[in-house]
From TrEMBL:
One of its GO terms (molecular function) is transmembrane transporter activity. The gene is araG_2. It is found in: Cell membrane. Its EC number is 3.6.3.17. This is Arabinose import ATP-binding protein AraG. InterPro entries: AAA+_ATPase, ABC_carbohydrate_import_ATPase, ABC_transp_permease, ABC_transporter-like_ATP-bd, ABC_transporter-like_CS, P-loop_NTPase. SMART domains: AAA. Its main location: membrane. Residues 7-241, 253-494 form the ABC transporter domain. It is an enzyme of class 3 (hydrolase).
């Protein structure tokens, strides 16, 4: 092993408000070595690597990567050869697998976007020839194991000099762990180095050359990985000897049956007959995806099921998670980040949210009762937090898990379902969680446990059901509940991990894709047009169609701007007043008695005014941290006030030549409509085939992952806000051909219309998803609905009915399809 140091950190200290996360850490990584980094959750491991990767800036100390000083710049770290695989993959869920791989690589290694899917498919084959990941799928469609594989492939293809792996095997099957270790050895064989962070000490000892121990943000020394025993490493991690034995199991004796299933079946499992008694823990074991986790989620009401279930001797029907909770069945999810915590809420809110009835006094939530219960839970479960008002996302994984567990138990369940109770949790917190689970069972609660750690299942469970291919193939009890017996029973049932996940119907997978909204809206336009044309032939006359296309062009253009902004999770309520102000400005300059050169400042000023408004909106949102709706509502009122000051009443006739140019047609097609169509296709091309489009979607999909990929959030949002306002000004130009006068109120209806158009066209209010062609179709549909109600002699209410129905249908279909693919 070389003595060359690729990564050096000297005297690194990192302070957060009220917390010293790192204190005077010195750490180095040599070329050709695997350097293990171990410690409890909250010890500072991820923070230390955050400083190394440039995601965090050290308060004190010096970081050197490949001989160059680092100063909190993730792009520089990546350019210098550092790649990191995080515990929670830094992927953008609304982007495809191929696009995530593209953005994850340094710019010099990126291919052309035109052949992206084929390139990504070859990259995935570097991991395994039979990898079951389609590069065209959105990341949101992947299961946890597949997401980690994509993240690892992305990091390996960067050809890093220093590769950081943060808990890389938590979701990997045994064969994929073996593949990972092969790749790690290949990385070090070419002279690069690997920092391996894991709670699995045996793993670290197997793969690492040296290991460094952190405790409470302080270094406890660097050692040869094979010189220390497992117990010695644990002692260094926790600061003393740790009783690693599991709590005593339930004493033998007859206990009443709390929960029993008979011929219970659901997605991924069938004909399961089990029972669990009061005071006992029933473990479910087997190779993952063989039905045990699906069985538990069906009991929790998350998956649909059929068969017989009895609770305390009575037949019950579990149709939903709410119904399960009402029956006294509570569930602790295994995916803590996605299903367990509410990251934006406090510890108190996360604790009380599952049992709010306990805090009701006189029909209202009592803050005093809620605070008291939270304080007691923090004490009882030894949660390390400054207080109950601390955001839960700032806590370590082990403490987050304790809060989730305490929250579930606060509902006083009869049956407790626990999925992966200690996944991603340090050794100290594990012992405390084991104690809580056993004490819960001793209090008379029936506990069902699923864990991928066979030692954990054996140490906690009184009985263990072995699952294989969706069925229970063996039951272990008493002295037979050992890790060896569980492993033996599992291996005798099946030698391979079944990697399937619930199949999603072709329709739902299609509905979750990008093309579905376009086809839906296009079909709605054709259907509505056909019905209206049959009812009243004048509807399809050239004059009628030309008029609709003229109005659709204006709505589409302002919709494009709104779409750009909504891609990055923004919204602009000021587009209507901006259109009005642009029209008012034009009414002072674009006059018939002024020459072309005298009119030029008017054109420039229209765009300049829009740019100023866009910049102000961005400044309010990014600089003052105002919510986009609040910020743009403020500019809505300010811009509208300016327009009314300049033109209290409509006035100022636009030059007739300009009006004629804007009203020009090619056949029955207005020139403005043709321009709007061309712009839609150009923007759509840029959205999927140019980096600017991928950056917009990536930032809206997941900001932190986008920032890690080298996308600058502030710059991209500035582009989006100013682009939105410019398109509002362009829409105002087309509107001049319809109004011909400076009217400050002319654009007001376009604010809500632009939002409706892009939502109908497939945009997500949460960012990352949208289509400019969809915005064009949405604009056409809205104008068409307004026209149809006139031709069919319907009341104005029908405009709102039809638009409201399609908006609800579009959002409902997308939400349902998204839920289907996420749960698959």
């Amino acid at each position: 092993m070389s003595t060359e140091r690729l990564l050096e950190m000297h005297g690194v200290t990192k302070l957060f408000p009220g917390v010293r996360a790192l204190s005077d850490i010195t750490f180095d990584v040599r070329a050709g070595e695997v350097h293990g980094l171990v410690g409890e959750n909250g010890a500072g491991k991820s923070t230390l690597m955050g400083v190394a990767s440039g995601a965090l800036k050290a308060t004190e100390g010096r970081v050197t990567l490949s001989g160059q000083h680092m100063d909190g710049d993730p792009e520089l770290a990546r350019d210098l050869g550092l790649a990191i695989v995080r515990q929670e993959p830094a992927l953008m869920p609304d982007l495809s697998v191929a696009e995530n791989l593209y953005l994850g690589l340094p710019e010099k290694l990126r291919p052309s976007l035109s052949g992206l899917n084929d390139w990504a498919r070859e990259l995935l084959k570097h991991w395994s020839n039979d990898v079951s990941i389609d590069p065209r799928d959105h990341v949101t469609m992947l299961n946890p194991e597949q997401r980690f594989i994509v993240e690892i492939v992305k990091a390996l293809e960067c050809k890093p000099k220093v590769l950081v792996l943060d808990e890389p095997t938590e979701h990997l099957a045994a064969e994929d762990v073996a593949r990972l270790f092969e790749r790690v050895r290949a990385v070090t064989a070419r002279g690069a180095s690997v920092v391996y962070i894991s709670h699995r000490i045996r793993e670290v000892q197997e793969i690492a050359d040296r290991l460094t121990v952190l405790r409470d943000g302080e270094g406890q020394g660097t050692f040869d990985a094979r010189e220390l025993s497992e117990d010695q490493i644990v002692s260094l991690i926790v600061g003393g000897d740790l009783d690693r034995t599991f709590p005593p199991k339930a004493a033998p004796g007859h206990k009443p049956t709390v929960l029993a299933t008979q011929d219970f079946s659901g997605p991924g499992f069938s004909q399961v007959s089990l029972q669990v008694r009061a005071g006992e823990i029933l473990g479910l074991a087997g190779i993952d995806a063989n039905g045990q986790r699906e069985f538990m989620r069906a009991l929790a009401g998350i998956y649909r099921s059929e068969g017989h279930v009895t609770l305390t001797g009575e037949d019950v029907s579990i149709r939903s998670s709410k119904g399960a909770k009402r029956l006294g069945i509570s569930y602790v999810p295994g995916d803590r980040h996605r299903e367990g915590i509410f990251p934006e809420l406090t510890v108190r809110e996360n604790f009380s949210i599952r049992s709010p009835h306990e805090d009701v006094r006189g029909g209202l939530i009592s803050n005093r009762a809620e605070h008291g219960r939270t304080v007691e839970a923090i004490r009882q479960f030894a949660v390390k937090t400054p207080d109950g008002e601390t955001p839960i996302q700032s806590l370590s994984g082990g403490n987050q898990q304790k809060v989730v567990l305490s929250s579930v138990l606060a509902a006083k369940p009869k049956v407790l379902l626990v999925d992966e109770p200690t996944q991603g949790v340090d050794v100290g917190a594990r012992a405390e969680i084991y104690k809580v689970i056993r004490e819960t069972a001793a209090a008379g609660v029936a506990v069902i446990l699923v864990s991928s750690d066979q030692q954990e299942v054996a140490g906690l469970s009184d009985h263990v059901a072995i699952f294989s291919r969706g069925r229970v193939v063996d039951m272990l009890s008493g002295d037979r509940v050992t890790e060896d017996n569980i492993t033996s029973a599992v291996l005798k049932s099946t030698q391979e991990r079944d990697k399937h996940h619930t199949a999603v119907g072709a329709f739902w997978k299609w509905a979750a894709g990008n093309a579905a909204p376009l086809i839906m809206v296009a079909a709605a336009i054709l259907l509505l047009g056909t019905v209206a044309g049959i009812w009243n032939p004048f509807y399809v006359s050239p004059r009628s169609l030309t008029g609709m296309m003229t109005f659709a062009a204006t709505l589409a253009l302002v919709g494009y701007g709104q779409q750009i902004l909504m891609l990055v999770r923004g919204i602009d309520l000021s587009v209507g007043p901006v259109m009005g102000l642009s029209q008012v400005v034009a009414s002072f300059f674009l006059l018939s008695d002024l020459g072309t050169m005298s009119q030029l400042p008017g054109w420039v000023l229209m765009i300049a005014v829009a740019l100023v408004v866009g910049f102000v909106n961005w400044l309010l949102v990014e600089g003052l941290r105002m919510h986009p709706m609040v910020a743009t509502l403020a500019t809505f009122m300010a811009v509208q006030a300016i327009s009314l000051i300049l033109r209290p009443t409509p006035g100022g006739m636009i030059d007739g030549d300009i009006m004629m140019a804007l009203s020009a047609k090619v056949g029955i097609f207005p020139v403005t409509f043709i321009a709007a169509v061309i712009v839609a296709f150009v923007l759509e091309y840029m959205l999927y085939r140019r980096r600017v489009g991928v950056s917009l979607r990536g930032l809206g999909s997941q900001q932190e992952a986008a920032r890690t990929a080298g996308i600058h959030p502030k710059r991209v949002r500035l582009l989006a806000y100013m682009g939105c306002s410019v398109f509002a000004a362009l829409a105002a130009i087309t509107m001049m051909g319809q109004i011909g006068i400076g009217d400050p109120r002319a654009g007001l209806s376009y604010t809500l219309g632009s939002i409706a158009a892009i939502v109908i066209g497939g945009a997500s209010l949460f960012g990352g998803r949208g289509s400019f062609i969809g915005a064009l179709l949405g604009a056409i549909f809205i104008v068409q609905v307004n026209s149809v109600t006139v031709f069919l002699r319907l009341s104005q209410e029908w405009q709102q009915y039809l638009l409201g129905f399609l908006i609800l249908a579009a959002v409902a279909l997308y939400s349902k399809s998204r839920m289907k693919v996420v749960q698959s």
